[in-house]
Amino acid sequence: MAYWANGLPAGAALALTAALFHVFNHSVFKSLLFFGSGAVLTATGERDMEHLGGLIHRMPKTAFAFLVGCAAISALPPLNGFVSEWLTFQAIVLNPDLPQWGLKIAIPADGALLALSAALAAACFVKAFGVCFLGRPRSTQAASAREVDYFSLAPMFILAAICLLAGVLPGVVVDSLEPVTTSILGGRMPTQLGDRWLSLVPMSAGRSSYNGLLVFLFITASTLIVVFLVHRFASNAIRRSAAWDCGFPDPRPETQYTAESFAQPIRRVFGSVVFRTREVVDMPLPGDMRPARITRFARDVAWDGLYIPVAAAVGAMADWMNVLQFLTIRQYLAFVFIALVALLTALALWQ
Amino acid sequence: MNEPASLWLLLVQFAQMSLVICLAPLLTGLVRKVKARLQRRRGPPLLQPYRDLRRLMLKQVVLAENASWLFRVVPYLMLSITWVAAALVPTFATGLMFNWTGDLIAIAGLLGAARFAQALAALDIGTSFGGIGSSREVMFASLAEPATMMIILCVALVAGSTQLSTIADHMANGAVGLRVSLALALIALIIVALAENARIPVDNPATHLELTMVHEAMVLEYSGRHLAMIDLAAFLKLLLYLSLIGCIFFPFGIAQAGAGPEYYLIGLAFYVMKLMLGGVLLGVFEMSIAKLRVFRVPNFLGAGFMLGLLGVLLLYVSRGM
Question: Is residue A255 part of a domain?
Answer without folding.
Answer: no
